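hey m, so remember when u said the tokens were messed up on ur end? i reran from scratch. heres the input so u can diff it against urs
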Amino acid sequence: MVKLETFNICSSKIESSVPEAWCLLLIDIQSLLKVAIRDFDAPLAVTMLNRLYILHWFIRIRWDGRHKIPLEKTNKNLFKAQGILYNYVANMAMECHFRGTSESLCYKTPVHWFTGVLLEDILYAKEVCNKTEAIKEAKQCNRMLRKYENPFCKETQPNCWRLMESSINWALNYEGAKEFKKIWYGFLKARSEAVLDLQKANYLPVEYRTLELKVEDQQKCVIQALVSPTLNTRGKGKVPLEKFLFKFTPQDVSQKIEVLLQAHPSL
């Protein structure tokens, strides 16, 4: 069995300058990761670990420039571009929420909206299974957004759809949108930078383990490299980052997240 203690390395001290709501979000994502590891749910574990590193960079960029990224120094920049991107997502969610746009009425707080967007993944408007698909899809989304077109589907990615719908309408139709357009253009630039970063040959350190996982049709599959980064243990190696991001991402991962979120009402 994979010990939950193995993943304590993903934790990092949070300074008091970080608002409580964002600290709770980080704690809840860590809890979801531990649930996934406990249940040997590799797809969900990979998804949560990805989101966790993005959140650490987001905290460092927004509040604490000395916040420690829980990765080795040679790998700590792997999620920096997405941390910058989600800083703009937070700005957009806050601006739209406090302006009271119709799309914002679904959310109690901007953190609630941000969480939904983070879990759905703002880079892609449809499921991607490998690096080539991811780059192609992200570039297509960028082209549409530059033309003020919403690439997201209201049914499959409602949080991303609402944020883009609200932001596009504000940027195009409201008087006094000059300051918001600065955020919008920063968001578009950050998306482009994230796509460029995705094209690099990055590697993530992992501890290799062989696990037997049950899937819905009752068959079993054997996987390796359920990521356990930066641990100095036998079996440690490196895998391309794209395998970490895409190899274990099934279509139902968002449904699994929704089920788990019911046990974490603070999100």
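this time it looks ok to me. The CA atoms of residues 211 and 222 lie 6 Å apart. if urs says something different then somethings off w ur setup not the seq
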